[in-house]
Amino acid sequence: MAKSASTFTCTACGASHKKWAGRCDACGAWNTIAEEAPLSQGPGRNLGAAKGRAVPLSGLATDEPPPPRSRSGLVELDRVLGGGLVPGSAVLVGGDPGIGKSTLLLQGAAAFARAGLDAVYISGEEASAQVRMRAQRLGLTDSPVRLGAETNLRDILTTLDRERPDLAIIDSVQTLWSDQVEAAPGSVAQVRAAAHELVTFAKRRDVAIVIVGHVTKDGQIAGPRVVEHMVDTVLYFEGERGHQFRILRSVKNRFGPADEIGVFEMTGAGLAEVANPSALFLSERGQPVPGSAVFAGIEGTRPVLTEVQALVAPSTLASPRRTVVGLDSGRVSTIIAVLEARCGIPFAGLDVFLNVAGGMRVNEPAADLAIAGALLSAREDSALPPEAVLFGEISLSGALRPVAQAENRLKEAQKLGFSQAILPEGQKVEGLSGMGIRRIADLTGFVGEVFGAG
């Protein structure tokens, strides 16, 4: 039998290479390719003449009810999970160091345990005494959560197979190691093997498993991307260190809507749920000032109002600065180019600063009109109407395009006391009364009607 050769794998994206190279062809990262021993010999070049067993096939129609869900009582956590925790599901949670992942999951484990689930918390990064100190600080010492500290994957799976809990939390997958893989903990091979074994165990034993994953400096979950494909749900815990708000965002969910968010506030007693994030993100708005626009957005199934802030000032640099926080910088550059080309409003020689208040991150194209409104308001030193919300997508021709779920956006704005809305001309709004709606066809008309210039 021919000896199996070592493989060369990129530690950033998990791509395999035949030989070592300084740069990964798949993701473009430098000095990330490492030599690894193969996981197993694997099959030969072909399967040979022996036949396997036939796999039973079935139709798409079924009388089986949807999988039951267990609710924790934490409304924001249940919302992001799609309505509750599904037995046998695998959930991957990532976030920056110190953002509150362990705090969130310890609170979640305690909530599920109080709701009747048998919850086990396995810590590979902290000793049991450290986790108990956190539980004491959070007031969770009376919850029936069972705690363990271990990094050996074989011992963890043996324990879970013997105890058969309803929920197991593994913190974190980068600390686990398998005795069948000749690599250091945290390497691509170890992370891939640990994730595969944990997901397989969850499906086979009908145990819900929550896995914590580290993130890279770019904010992506570290390790091979195949880990995100293996699990059922991928959650990101986001937030800025300078803000007390934390956002749990679902980017993949096989049992519920993706892009759903749950909002928490970091307090001295742990994470507190925020039932009305729109009021929270707009709570510090004072008198109307130039450069402020309120955007009515949609995060998953939830309407959220956020404040887009802009500052435009003369630049002393040869290349003016473009600083964007909480928005897509490429999208902002496109909107500035459309304002210059279609409306004749130059931004050359001007520094532009844009920010979403409260540490929120907005990725919707529907925010284009609010971004343009904030930029124009800051440049012209003229405040937008304080009772108005804006949303609409801007095309490269300068036309305003309608967006989805307009009624939900306007109902949320109306609930918070806004009485006007500036929308694209083709936007359909039904079943809404008491809201003054101004429809505008293109960006030129928006400049002329709102700021009194053609």
From TrEMBL:
ATP binds at G95, D96, P97, G98, I99, G100, K101, S102. CDD domains: RadA_SMS_N. GO terms for molecular function: ATP binding; ATP-dependent DNA damage sensor activity; damaged DNA binding; hydrolase activity; zinc ion binding. A motif (RadA KNRFG motif) lies at residues 252-256. Gene3D superfamilies: 3.30.230.10, P-loop containing nucleotide triphosphate hydrolases. PROSITE patterns: RECA_2. The middle region has homology to RecA with ATPase motifs including the RadA KNRFG motif, while the C-terminus is homologous to Lon protease. This is DNA repair protein RadA. It comes from Paracoccus alkanivorans.
